[in-house]
Amino acid sequence: MKITDVISHVLQYDLPEELGYSQQYYARRSAHLVEVLTSEGVTGWGECFGPGPIAIANKGIVEGVIKPMILGADPLDRDVLWHHVYNLTRDHGQKGMPLQALSGVDIALWDISGKVAGLPIHKLIGGAHRERVAVYGYGMMLRREDPAAMASRFEEEAAAIKDAGFAATKMKIGLGLKHDVALAEAVRRGVGDDYTFMADANHCYTTADAFYVGRALGELGAYWFEEPVAPEDLDGYRELRRGLTVNIAGGEAEFNRWGWRSILENRGLDIAQPEVCALGGISEYLRVLALCHAHFTPVINHVWGSDVAVSANLQLLAAMPPLPGGLFPTEPMLEFDTTHNYFRNDMCKEPLRIAEQVKATGGFVDIPKRPGIGVEPDPDYIKRFRI
Ligand code: CA
């Protein structure tokens, strides 16, 4: 079996309303799918993290840099190909976009391996530690509105996500210290005292400011404080973890085993959030997971993107060993974006229907058992959104 083509599909549409996080507002939703074709007619699908112009640049890396390196190779040799590509691109980027591009290709190669074996990826990895996984719904994005109006919107939206059945919810912060504390108070009011919520700062604070917000989150009983400071600020992470009661989460902007080794050895994370569509794909995710567990750091995957990324993550969450184990271990959760997204459900022939499953089960989704990643994008649907 040989790889005969590697195609990037960058999909995009205008959102019905602008969404924002601490770094920017955005008006378009995008997704970057990678399709790997083979001589035996088996097709693999993967996804690269990165919206808009980042996706367009990553398409150039996938088709212009990686494709010529792997054309004609056996797609089942995914780890050999990973190292071949990484070693040849190392001089040009050990982090960031080359790794995001490689991630989508690697996931597609795992999809091919699963389809050839007739097994879901969690079986290829070693089996399912769980048949279903709890889902947390994130929403409560920033908008260009008055902070008081935003607080009341957050309160309503948090209550709606809870009512929709999600096991927990996550909000954005980043308006400024006092406003951010008010937003978190509004979310706590919206969900009541016995419900889990988390706050995501997308690295907008200095360490001192993060202490201010983190103390308030601790008093409100937030479960975690995500990306409080810049990913490069390892000292800040370590100081916050020592000084705050709220769990410190992060890692979505870190890449490969060497980047993760640094943040884990630094002891700045209570919860690790590797992003499989960015850090180097499933091959590298498994090594990062082993590193996290070697440091006894629990992992709750960062998830962004279409049903392809969601389904790939469900495979990984199924195959993740409990840490440290026990009758009632702390279980991982699936991160799920509750905001407008055409690249869910209708994009694939066998939709995941996460929101419907969550509603029906009180917060859980089943692990897909079809071969490979477990979903198959519909080519006609992709054509409608491809740019
Ligand atoms: Ca985040």
Note the gap between the termini. 31 Å
Q: Could you tell me which ligands this complex binds, including any ions or cofactors?
A: calcium ion
Q: What are the low-pLDDT stretches, counting only 5+ consecutive residues below 50?
A: none
> How many strands in all?
11
Q: What Rg is obtained from the alpha carbons, in whole angstroms?
A: 20 Å
CATH homologous superfamily title of the largest domain: Enolase-like C-terminal domain
List the helices and strands and how they pair.
Elements lengths: L2 E19 L2 E15 L4 E6 L3 H19 L7 H12 L7 H21 L3 H5 L6 E7 L8 H17 L4 E5 L4 H15 L4 E5 L6 H13 L4 E3 L7 H10 L3 E4 L5 H10 L5 E2 L3 H4 L1 H14 L12 H12 L14 E5 L16 H8 L2 E3 L12 H7 L2
Parallel strand pairs: 4-5, 4-10, 5-6, 6-7, 7-8, 8-9
Antiparallel strand pairs: 1-2, 2-3, 4-11
Helix pairs in contact: 1-3, 2-3, 3-11, 5-6, 6-7, 7-8, 9-11
The structure holds calcium ion.
Calcium ion (CA) binds next to loops.
Describe this structure in words.
By secondary structure, this protein is an alpha/beta fold. It folds into two domains: 3-118, Enolase-like, N-terminal domain (Enolase-like, domain 1, 2-Layer Sandwich); 123-366, Alpha-Beta Barrel (TIM Barrel), CATH 3.20.20. It is built from 14 helices and eleven strands. The chain has helices at 52-70, 78-89, 97-117, 121-125, 147-163, 177-191, 207-219, 234-243, 256-265, 276-279, 281-294, 307-318, 354-361, 379-385; strands spanning 3-21, 24-38, 43-48, 132-138, 168-172, 196-200, 224-226, 247-250, 271-272, 333-337, 364-366. The strands form two sheets. Strands 4, 5, 6, 7, 8, 9, 10 and 11 form an eight-stranded mixed β-sheet that branches. The chain has a three-stranded antiparallel β-sheet with strand order 1-2-3. α1 (52-70) crosses α3, α3 crosses α11 and α7 (207-219) runs parallel beside α8 (234-243). It is globular and about 60 Å long. The protein starts with a strand and ends with a helix. The mean pLDDT is 97. Bound molecules: calcium ion. Calcium ion binds next to loops. Calcium ion is lined by residues 200, 202, 226-227, 252.
